[in-house]
Amino acid sequence: MLTNKELFEQAKLCIPGGVNSPVRSFNSVGGTPFFTARAEGSSLFDIEGKEYIDYVCSWGANIVGHANKTVIARVTEALANGFSYGTPTELEVVFAKKICELVPSIDKFRLVSSGTEAVMSAIRLARGYTRRNYIIKFNGCYHGHSDSLLIKAGSGLQTFGNPSSSGVPEEAVRHTLVLEYNDTEQLVEAFRVYPEAIAAVVIEPFAGNMNLVRPTSEFIQQLRELCTKNGTVLVFDEVMTGFRVALGGAQQLLGIKPDLTTVGKVIGGGMPLAGFGGKAEIMDCLAPIGGVYQAGTLSGNPVAVTAGLAVLDLIQQQDFYLRLANSASLLMDGLKKIANEEGISLSVDSVGGMFGFYFSDRVPQSFAEVKEGNQELFNRFFHLMLDRGVFFAPSMYEAGFISAVHDSRVIDKTLAIARDVFKILYTQTV
Ligand SMILES: *Cc1c(COP(=O)(O)O)cnc(C)c1O
């Protein structure tokens, strides 16, 4: 039997960095990642047979518990009908109807295979619809790895940012403006400097890719008003928050209707499935009826759509999100209380089945404030918890996730382990 260390060495010889997505390599916290052999309920099991309580949940995709029996049964049935046809299917129509019904701002919906594709397509659509080029994104938000969105903040409004990845030409981000999350003044100023030039503003309505950061109500309301006034398409990137924070997504909780919405993660229940939708007038600009081209060989894959439909059925059960939100706050309130009792400064937040904890004495409102958190303390906490069988996201810039099967027994166990860990952290700190 291979150990995680041995397999990581082998992996690095044939896969760049040993992983197929960078954050999995533990590059931010150090050490060797574990290789998952299987998952069940609220747990992952690695190739050495060690069990971990899983608070990453496939980065939010898993909301009904790993290897859910209902989902498995329906996917198994679908498999027998073949994996992909390259023709339309009834399943896709059922799925789109359901999404339109659950998210009132979505009149029409199109499926793709990843969140990256969904946001990339939504941006192209917004540009095609408005016949404008400029877009605004916010510092600390992640919208997948398409060229125009891989950008670091520049200094000030007049200078545009720089690509945050090599291989992205400066020209590709020349029309992307990066602003600070929750900075209403800067937003107002941006629309003043670029009147009638901004095609879209894309935002994570609750940010989850710089840890969890909420918008202030003033900021998000101003954003909606400014977009409406300027004829700019407001894109809520709900790839993470969609069907994660509430059945109707972040837009339901915030009471704000975007023009376009992107979804992913939860809607595929772990299968490669994502999509984007919104106002019919905008969506009808897509090929084959409109001039904005967008396509995909595996888009609307019948197996993935079946998994998605099964998940959508499960999350519509009575009080599903109420119970999820209660579990998340039970975990976060408990963690904060224990940390403080053990002399460690920690603040926490949660929305639906998504949570954040910060080694800092206040809940951050921007990327700059997230950065003020104690990175060294987080990294030690991460490894001490991991050693004891609890898997939190391997970076202090990621939100955490729970599923419907993370019950009070699982949470109590987590908190008991956390108490031991905070004791150790305190002893090491003083
Ligand atoms: C995960 C994520 C994406 C990218 O989705 P992929 O499926 O990884 O391409 C885009 N936007 C947000 C908000 C995300 O959390």
From TrEMBL:
One of its GO terms (cellular component) is cytoplasm. It catalyses: (S)-4-amino-5-oxopentanoate = 5-aminolevulinate. It comes from the Bacteria. Belongs to the class-III pyridoxal-phosphate-dependent aminotransferase family. HemL subfamily. Transmembrane segments: none annotated. The modification N6-(pyridoxal phosphate)lysine is found at residue 265. SUPFAM superfamilies: PLP-dependent transferases (SSF53383). Keywords: Cytoplasm, Isomerase, Porphyrin biosynthesis, Pyridoxal phosphate. Its main location: cytoplasm. GO terms for biological process: protoporphyrinogen IX biosynthetic process. Pathway: Porphyrin-containing compound metabolism; protoporphyrin-IX biosynthesis; 5-aminolevulinate from L-glutamyl-tRNA(Glu): step 2/2. GO terms for molecular function: glutamate-1-semialdehyde 2,1-aminomutase activity; pyridoxal phosphate binding; transaminase activity. It is found in: Cytoplasm. Homodimer. Its cofactor is pyridoxal 5'-phosphate. HAMAP family: HemL_aminotrans_3. Its EC number is 5.4.3.8. This is Glutamate-1-semialdehyde 2,1-aminomutase.
